[in-house]
Specification:
Layout (H helix, E strand, L loop, with lengths): L2 E6 L3 H16 L3 E2 L8 E6 L4 H20 L4 E6 H5 L3 H4 L5 E3 L7 H6 L21 E5 L1 E2 L10 H5 L3 E2 L2 H13 L4 E5 L15 H8 L7 E4 L9 H8 L4 E6 L7 H7 L5 H14 L4 E8 L6 H14 L3 E6 L17 H24 L5 E9 L5 E4 L11 E4 L11 E9 L4 E8 L3
Parallel strand pairs: 1-2, 1-3, 3-4, 4-5, 6-9, 9-10, 10-11, 11-12, 12-13, 16-18
Antiparallel strand pairs: 7-8, 14-15, 14-17, 15-16, 17-18
Helix pairs in contact: 12-13
């Protein structure tokens, strides 16, 4: 059996795991199947973070069993968070041959293939990129030690564990060699990097990443809103490769709700985090997430969240309707809200944010910015992203005025922002990178 296929679900951190699994097989002489139906060994790499993700994973596993019944699949394997969260699934899914938890990722290819060492020497431990190589993710840690009361991650992934800097630099150099110009630094909590050892080392890591010549943008995703050290603030404000963009989930803004959520920062500390960034980092773009309808959330407490969002004025905000997750302390709390109330509050929050996002985008009109070309959208428009638009979660910049010039995916152009909408920008190309 020489063809391996993989269906990966969930977050980008899970995608990195999937790429390492595929890379390990490729390095041992296996062929990677583009279509799961062609795979002789088929993996479903699962997410188990919330109920909706669990349901999606189960559906994908059941669909994958059809390939085993009537297709080329001889071995069906399930990996990832769902296996760790629900070990009983090993007994409930006899159609699945192999199960692997997140801790097994580095060893899966060896275990399944029986080949202990890669047959193809590579500059970096194998990773097959499953998306265009110009924009990639560098996962700098595993797990999380914050233990928020609603969250399953510490149970699934364990406590926060920083990846050694030298190993990350090695991986980043390899990614740059594969064509990466944008490096998205991710972890469950990037601002904890190094805190499980001698102390904060995120600024040191970013400084060393900036030394990689071909990288143009280094973006921070999923930062816990704890105080940022002066060196990190300098990097964000310097105009260098670490772009002035940060994704820092707040989850809520009322003191009682934050305490019930088990958050390690107060409402005042959260507010100060964003105030300092806006004061000291020119052009800072802020993204956050919030949870609506946490058990016991009163109308007054929800209004405190709305007030905070209106005061802080995030460029981008994603909201989640609270989902009681089995095994979490929050699932045992009294005061669960009706679904109708939760979704009504969700709509109010997102309606407010839409107004703010439109205002924030309008402020870019007239500016000339570097734009990273992403490709062509469903309407035939050439689209890219500005520094203020993270991949997959924020809007796009629609590019006009390039005439007959062929623009390549992963190329930078300079463009003047001419118009905006709630989530997107429109820009006219004024210069190309090679001019």
């Amino acid at each position: 059996m020489k063809k391996v296929g993989l269906i990966s679900l969930g977050c980008v951190k899970n995608r990195v795991d999937a790429e390492r699994i595929l890379g390990g097989f490729e390095a041992r002489g296996f062929e990677i199947a583009d279509d799961p139906a062609d795979a002789e060994i088929l993996f479903v790499n699962t997410c188990g973070f919330i109920k909706d993700a669990v349901e999606e994973a189960v559906e994908e596993i059941l669909e994958a069993t059809l390939h085993k019944k009537s297709g080329k699949c001889k071995i069906l394997a399930v990996s990832g968070c769902l296996v760790k969260r629900y070990p009983e699934m090993r007994d409930e899914l006899p159609e699945v041959d192999l199960f692997f938890t997140p801790e097994d990722v580095e060893h899966i290819p060896e275990i399944v293939s029986g080949v202990p060492q890669p047959l193809k020497p590579r500059d970096y431990p194998a990773r097959i990129l499953t998306a265009p190589p110009h924009s990639v993710y560098l996962k700098i840690a595993e797990g999380c030690s914050n233990r928020c009361s609603y969250c399953t991650i510490p149970t699934i992934r364990g406590d926060f564990r920083s990846v050694p800097i030298d190993k990350l630099i090695e991986e980043a150099r390899w990614l740059a060699g594969e064509g990466a110009v944008e490096l998205n630094v991710v972890a469950q909590d990037v601002t904890s990097y190094g805190l499980d050892g001698d102390g904060p080392r995120l600024a040191e890591l970013l400084s060393r990443l900036e030394e990689i010549d071909s990288l143009r943008w280094i973006r921070l995703l999923y930062a816990y809103p704890r105080p940022l050290d002066d060196r990190l603030m300098e990097l964000l404000s310097s105009g260098g490769k670490v772009i002035p963009y940060i994704d820092a989930p707040i989850q809520h803004a009322h003191p009682r709700v934050l305490k019930a959520m088990g958050r390690k920062v107060s409402a005042a500390e959260t507010s100060e985090f964003f105030r300092r960034l806006k004061k000291h980092v020119p052009g800072i773009v802020l993204r956050t997430t919030a949870i609506v309808g946490f058990p016991g959330e009163s109308e007054k407490e929800f209004q405190a969240l709305l007030d905070f969002v209106e005061e802080t004025r995030f460029n981008h905000l994603g909201a989640f309707a609270y989902s009681p997750e089995e095994g979490t302390p929050a699932a045992e709390l009294a005061g669960r809200l009706d679904e109708e109330v939760i979704w009504e509050r969700y709509d109010r929050l997102m309606t407010l944010q839409a107004v703010i996002s439109e205002e924030k985008n309008a402020a870019f009109v007239g500016r000339e910015l570097p734009i990273l070309v992403e490709g062509i959208d469903g309407e035939g428009e050439v689209v890219g992203r500005s520094y203020g638009q993270a991949p997959e979660v924020d809007g796009h910049t629609i590019l006009e005025g390039y005439g007959d010039r062929v623009v390549e995916v992963g190329e930078f152009v300079t463009a003047k922002i001419t118009a905006s909408s709630t989530y997107d920008l429109i820009a006219s190309v004024t210069a190309y990178d090679d001019e």
